[in-house]
Amino acid sequence: MTTIKQEDLIQSIADALQFISYYHPTDFIRAMRGAWEREESAAAKAALTQVLVNSKLCAIGKRPICQDTGIVNVLISVGMDVRWDAELALEDMINEGVRRGYTHPDNVLRGSVLVDPDGARTNTKDNTPAVVHTRIVAGDTVEIEVAAKGGGSEAKAKFAMLNPSDSIVDWILSVVPSMGAGWCPPGILGVGIGGTPEKAMLLAKESLMEPLDMHALQARGAQNHNEALRLELFEKVNALGIGAQGLGGLTTVLDVKVKDYPTHAANKPVALIPNCSATRHVHFTLDGSGPAQFTPPDLSEWPDIDFELGDDVKRVNLDSLDPEAVKDWQAGDTLLLSGKMLTGRDAAHKKLADLLEKGEPLPVDFTNRIIYYVGPVDPVRDEVVGPAGPTTATRMDKFTRTMLERTGLLGMIGKAERGQIAIDAIRDHQAVSMIAVGGAAYLVAKAITKSELLAFPELGMEAIYEFTVKDMPVTVSVDATGRSVHIDGPKIWSAKIADTIPTKAI
Known about the structure:
The chain is of the alpha/beta class and 506 residues long. The chain contains 15 helices and 19 strands. The strands form five sheets. A five-stranded mixed β-barrel has the order 14-15-16-17-19. Strands 6-2-7-12 form a four-stranded mixed sheet. Strands 8-11-9-10 form a four-stranded mixed sheet. The longest helix has 20 residues, at 42-61.
C-alpha cells in the first residue's frame, strides 16, 4: 500500500500551476510551430509569430503566457490501494496547492475566480476553489492532470442534445463560426459524445488533455469511427478559413480530440470545448516517493524568430490623437501606439454605464482617448505591469454605443471580433476598434512603460488604469466605415482553401 503525504500533493499542485503558467506543453509548441511554418496568410502568420515569440519569452522569463491565468481544473484518479497521510480533505489539499501556486512571490498569477457568481461576484484573490473531478480506480498511485483554463475559451463551450440521426459534423460546423475568435485560435477542439449532458461536457474537457497527434493520424489513417470523425472535423473546420485570431488563414485548429461514452437510445449528447493558444496543462503521478518533478521543454523546440513589423506600419501618438486621424485608419492596418491609453473591461464598463445612467460625473475623462480591454497580472521585481494581453472585446459590445456617444471615446483595443451592434456604433460615430494578439501577454507588457491607477481600485485587475506605452503593436479590426477584418478575412481564406482542396492538403 502506497502512502501519499498531504504536503506532497499540495506542493505538486502548486509547482504544476507555476510550471504551466510559463511553459506550453512540448506537443503544443511543435503543433504551433508547424502551423506557423505552413501559414500563407500574412496577418495570421504575424499573429502566430507573436504567440510563439511570447511563448519563448515566458519560458525564459518564467512569467505567465497569458494575463488570464485561468480557472484551475484538476482531473484526479486515486488508486484504491492508496493511503493518505493527511489532515485535510482531498479537495482542501488541492485548493491549498492552488493558493500557493497563484500567490508565489516570484511569479504571481492573476486571481480570476469569483464567489457569488450571480450576485456580488467577489474575487477570492488566490484563484480558489479549483474545479475538481475525482475517480477512484484500481492501483496504488494517484494520477493527476492539472489545467489552467482561460475564460475566453471556456466562454465558447457548446452543448447540444442531438437526435440520434443528427450529424455531429454538421452541428460542429454550424457552431464553430459562431464562436468567433474569442477563444484565440488556433487551438484544439475537444468533443464529448454520449452519456448524459454533464458526462458529455466532462468527456470534452478530458479529451483536451490528450497528446496532439493529428499529423501522425493523417499519415496512418483512421482505424475506428472516432478517428475518422477527428480527421473529417480537422479538415472541415480548417476549411472555414477562420485562422489565427480570426484574421483568416489556413490553420484554425491544431487538433480535434474525441471521447465518447454509452448513452440512452433516445439521445445523442454532444459537447464542444475549445482550448486556446494559451493551452496549459500537465500530467503527473504521485507514488509515495515525494512531490512531482517537472521537466521544462527544450528551448530548441521554439523556432528561431523575432517579431518584426513590415514597412507599412503606421506610428500613432496617442497623446495628440483626434477624430480626424482615426478616420484615416483602414481595417487591417498595423499600428504602433505610443503615449497614454486608458484600461477597463467588464466590471469597469458596468460602473461607468451606471454613473452615466444616474447623470453622475465619470472619474476619468475619455475625450479623444483609447481604452484597452485588459486585466493584467500583478507586476513582480522591476516590472511596470505583469503580462497584459487583451480580453475579448465582444463582451463590451453592449456598452460601446453609450461610451462613444457620451464620453468622447475614440477607440478600443481588445481581442476577437466585434458584434454587429458594436460595428454599427463604431461606424455611426466614425470611431475605431483594434486588436492586440491574444496569447501574447508578456510580449505586450514589454511595450508598457508606466502604469497609474485612476479609478475603481476595488475592482482589482478590472480597475481603470492609465498605461503609458511605447510602440505597442495593434491591428485595426473595425474601421470608421464599419469594415471588419474578422468578417472579410475568413471569407477570403475559406474561398482560397476551397480552391486548393482538390490538389493541396490543408
